């Protein structure tokens, strides 16, 4: 009797609680933080133990070729056959889930990412664990939120909390994890989900410390600025970091285009190219294998020769670009820090050799180099400053870090406009919102607020004369052409005027390969008007983010 | 919803268990690997293969940051490999965790000595002395105090050295080797009386100790007790009759005894003769040191005054007043020596020793 009463009370309390969305979000963030933290810690530990078994102390050099090849072969097959969504870094995939799939990530993808990445990383493939952790975290959050019966918008809202929790556990920097979720995943530093993100990141970090203790990811000697003239050398480091970042991104994207052109039947085998490359490079420099944080720590402590760090920066760029573009599961977050540390170590060694009395040791430069590479490749300058600050807990590093990051950011932006995750998404045919867009969306009306879906496109089979009359009656200089929801392009009055004979059909004048202006439903009206002005048309087709040929509706300038 | 909550709770418990298992497994395996690398490092160190040892210790240290033995071994090997900056970084890491950890403070002091930063070295030595040692605390403290005293003897001031030597005297117990070391430090700190006491205490336990007699003789010479010094040297000589060093010391003591104008039993004439000889020797030593160089006006004046005094025939009453005039002139002359001549007057120079005694 008492039990029934208690059960009834709990049910009533739960029903009342479920109606208060803010409280639900906070409680769920706590659960997400704990669960994601535990899973990511298991991921880190499992990967480490597997790697220890694959490469026992004093093992033969042949292992460095055979094991990466074997690891990439097995994981490549698993990814191809069972877990296609678990391929790649994990950060773009988490963004796809947020912006394209209403926050949906399947449990199968989470399991696949965990297994394939554990195998890949343990076998020594030159990729990182942070990106996969972010997708695993986002996936667990998505599954959990759906199981708890949250609405689509709520699921999307809680997803960044999972990403932050994963990064806080994987990288042991909770503040940087929060910022990364806002700056990179959401692209909005003022997002209303800040509370959930902070709670989950903090919970996950506590879990990490509960199990693995209070050890930072890197043990770095105290930073010191020996002479103000060093600021100039930090600017040079920013320049080198920016150029190195651009080289890395361009090589990776170029190789990825090349691999994507290969026959689809070879997709399962392609990761082996990455494994073999890493194995061969490891014969010359075993440090290129895996995440390489042990070696990063040695460089941060100073005392590694210039030629070694310079060589490793180049080899790691090649190994990671090849590993990633060939389709292995793993992230570029960790390798970015490795490359940055090597570039910084090289600049620091050279500077210290030239000006020993007025410069700090190479370790300080390696530390700043990590931030510079991160700012250049991932393009999250604020996160990179806070991340390095959190790692060192040394305030005096902030100014050199900001100088270096800014220079690296500007240089890489000038030479490679798109940040790496956006560029990777574009290669997949996905147009993710940029940070500027996301900011505008908050302040202004969106296209979907005014678009009318009862206006129809021209069918491609329509007679050209009839099409001309439609445009004239509507007093428009362009109109979308589509059939059964598939957009062919934009028919302009200019095209019709340039033809003397209008007896043919509309599809006769349409070029399927031509690039046409478009707009997405969640973009701001300001963006839409800007594009209309740039293209010189009165109308833009509104298309899906996941498929630029998927017709949704027309947008007329008069509507704006 | 309740069902989902229950599943999540079970999942949390299960994952926590799995994590704990994996963490313990990692701890065990990493611990074993760390011990293996440490042993490899020790072996390489005994073979004097320093770079290999540094690498092995660095890897062991990276695996188990909390293991201070690995960190100390790494810092020591880095010092042996002349990687002072790296060694200091390693030690800073240990001291950030526990600033009271004595072995790290001791090594840090040694890195400072290598960089000739003696004041900072002294500070780290004292942190080591008053810090926590993992084992043999009192012995380690004593050894560290001896080390800091040696450092002060080589590079520090005599006041600091005397204070360390006195502390050592109080804490060293009855170990003859340490007591001899302490006595030598007391001598160097300018406290021959205390040094003589230590040597005597040693001779009470070991009456045939040649070194203790030699030390006592040196202490007595510096304290101006030339008779006692001579006596100690005679006794030492009976135990080591062919010792050239003892012979030299004995000659010095004999010379000092024959020149010393201070004993009460001396007649006025003898005192005047000794004073005259001291002034003559002091003047000759300075002139010999100057060579062809021109003396400063003050020194020239003193040399001139000394020459005039020495030119007086030792006729008439041999009064103490006349003897004192010569001794005072010898002191003034000695004080007016140019810096060039100062190192020449070592602790084996009878004139220097005598004038020091007279000045006191």
Describe this protein's structure.
- The complex is a heterodimer of chains A (560) and B (360).
- With 560 residues, chain A is mainly alpha-helical.
- In chain A, 64% of the residues lie in helices and 5% in strands.
- In chain A, the strands form two sheets. A three-stranded mixed sheet of chain A has the order 3-4-5. Chain A has a two-stranded antiparallel ribbon with strand order 1-2.
- In chain A, a hairpin with a 2-residue loop joins strand 1 and strand 2 (486-492).
- The model of chain A has no long low-confidence stretch (mean pLDDT 86).
- Chain B is mostly helical.
- Chain B is 78% helix and 0% strand.
- Chain B is built from 17 helices and no strands.
- In chain B, helix 12 packs antiparallel against helix 13 (244-259).
- Chain B is elongated.
- The model of chain B has no long low-confidence stretch (mean pLDDT 86).
- Chains A and B meet through helix 1, helix 2 and helix 12 of A and helix 1 and helix 4 of B.
């Amino acid at each position: 009797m008492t039990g029934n009463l208690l059960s009834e009370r709990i049910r009533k309390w739960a029903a009342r609680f479920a109606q208060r969305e803010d409280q639900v979000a906070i409680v769920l963030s706590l659960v997400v933080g704990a669960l994601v933290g535990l899973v990511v810690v298991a991921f880190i530990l499992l990967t480490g133990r597997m790697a220890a078994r694959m490469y026992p102390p004093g093992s033969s050099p042949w292992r460095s070729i055979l094991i990466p090849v074997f690891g990439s072969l097995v994981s490549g097959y698993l990814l191809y056959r069972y877990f296609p969504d678990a391929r790649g870094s994990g950060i773009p995939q988490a963004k796809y889930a947020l912006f394209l799939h209403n926050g949906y990530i399947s449990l199968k993808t989470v399991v696949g990412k965990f297994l394939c990445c554990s195998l890949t990383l343990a076998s020594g493939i030159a990729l990182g664990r942070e990106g996969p952790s972010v997708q695993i975290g986002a996936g667990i959050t998505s599954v959990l939120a759906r199981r708890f019966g949250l609405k689509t918008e709520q699921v999307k809202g809680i997803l960044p909390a999972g990403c932050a929790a994963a990064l806080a556990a994987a990288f042991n920097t909770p503040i940087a994890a929060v910022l990364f979720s806002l700056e990179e995943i959401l692209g909005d530093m003022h997002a209303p989900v800040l509370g959930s993100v902070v709670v989950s990141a903090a919970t996950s970090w506590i879990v990490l410390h509960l199990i693995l203790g209070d050890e930072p990811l890197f043990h770095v000697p105290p930073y010191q600025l020996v002479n103000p003239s060093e600021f100039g050398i930090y600017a040079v480091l920013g320049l080198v970091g920016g150029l190195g970042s651009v080289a890395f991104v361009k090589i990776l994207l170029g190789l990825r285009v090349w691999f994507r052109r290969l026959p689809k039947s070879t997709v399962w085998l392609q990761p082996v190219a990455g494994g073999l490359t890493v194995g061969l490079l490891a014969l010359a420099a075993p440090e290129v294998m895996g995440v390489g944080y042990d070696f990063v720590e040695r460089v941060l402590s100073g005392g590694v020769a210039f030629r070694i760090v310079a060589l490793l920066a180049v080899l790691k760029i090649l190994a990671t670009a090849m590993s990633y573009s060939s389709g292995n599961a793993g992230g570029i977050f960790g390798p970015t820090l490795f490359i940055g540390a090597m570039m910084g170590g090289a600049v620091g060694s050279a500077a210290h050799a030239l000006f020993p009395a007025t410069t700090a040791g190479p370790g300080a430069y390696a530390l700043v180099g990590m931030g510079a590479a991160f700012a250049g490749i991932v393009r999250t300058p604020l996160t990179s400053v806070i991340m390095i600050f959190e790692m060192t807990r040394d305030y005096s590093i902030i100014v050199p870090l900001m100088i270096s990051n800014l220079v690296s950011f500007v240089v890489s932006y000038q030479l490679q406009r798109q940040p790496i995750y956006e560029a990777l998404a574009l290669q997949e045919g996905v147009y993710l919102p940029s940070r500027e867009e996301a900011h505008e969306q908050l302040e202004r009306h969106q296209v979907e607020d005014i678009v009318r879906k009862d206006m129809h496109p021209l069918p491609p089979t329509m007679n050209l004369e009839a099409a001309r009359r439609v445009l004239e009656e509507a007093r428009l200089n362009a109109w979308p052409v589509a059939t059964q929801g598939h957009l062919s392009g934009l028919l302009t009055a200019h095209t019709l005027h340039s033809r003397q004979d209008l007896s043919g059909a509309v599809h006769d004048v349409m070029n399927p390969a031509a690039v046409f202006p478009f707009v997405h439903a969640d973009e701001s009206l300001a963006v839409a008007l800007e594009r209309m002005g740039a293209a010189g048309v009165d109308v833009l087709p509104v298309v899906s983010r996941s498929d630029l040929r998927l017709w949704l509706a027309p947008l007329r300038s008069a509507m704006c | 919803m309740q069902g989902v909550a229950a599943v999540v709770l079970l999942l949390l418990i299960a994952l926590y268990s799995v994590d704990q298992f994996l963490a313990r497994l990692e701890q065990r395996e990493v611990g074993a690997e760390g011990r293996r690398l440490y042993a490899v490092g020790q072996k390489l160190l005994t073979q004097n293969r320093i770079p290999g040892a540094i690498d092995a210790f660095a890897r062991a240290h990276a695996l188990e940051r909390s293991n201070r033995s690995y960190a100390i071994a790494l810092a020591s090997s880095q010092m042996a490999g002349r990687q002072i900056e790296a060694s200091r970084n390693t030690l800073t890491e240990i001291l950030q965790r526990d600033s009271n950890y004595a072995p790290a403070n001791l090594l840090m002091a040694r890195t400072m000595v290598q960089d000739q930063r003696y004041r900072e070295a002294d500070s780290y030595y004292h942190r080591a002395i008053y810090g926590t040692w993992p084992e043999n605390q009192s012995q380690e403290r004593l050894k560290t105090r001896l080390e800091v005293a040696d450092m002060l003897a080589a590079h520090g001031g005599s006041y600091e050295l005397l204070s360390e030597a006195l502390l050592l005297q109080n804490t060293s117990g009855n170990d003859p080797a340490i007591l001899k070391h302490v006595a030598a430090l007391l001598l160097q700190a300018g406290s021959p009386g205390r040094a003589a006491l230590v040597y005597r205490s040693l001779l009470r336990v070991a009456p045939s100790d040649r070194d203790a007699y030699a030390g006592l003789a040196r202490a007595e010479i510096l304290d101006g007790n030339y008779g006692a010094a001579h006596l100690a040297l005679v006794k030492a000589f009976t135990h080591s009759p062919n010792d050239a060093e003892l012979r030299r010391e004995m000659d010095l003591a004999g010379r000092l005894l024959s020149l010393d104008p201070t004993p009460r039993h001396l007649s006025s004439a003898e005192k005047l003769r000794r004073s005259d000889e001291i002034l003559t020797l002091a003047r000759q030593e300075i002139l010999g040191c100057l060579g062809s160089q021109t003396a400063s006006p003050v020194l020239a004046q003193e040399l001139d005054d000394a020459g005039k005094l020495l030119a007086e025939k030792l006729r008439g009453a041999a009064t103490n007043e006349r003897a004192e005039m010569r001794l005072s002139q010898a002191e003034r002359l000695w004080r007016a020596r140019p810096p060039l001549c100062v190192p020449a007057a070592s602790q084996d120079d009878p004139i220097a020793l005598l004038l020091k005694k007279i000045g006191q």
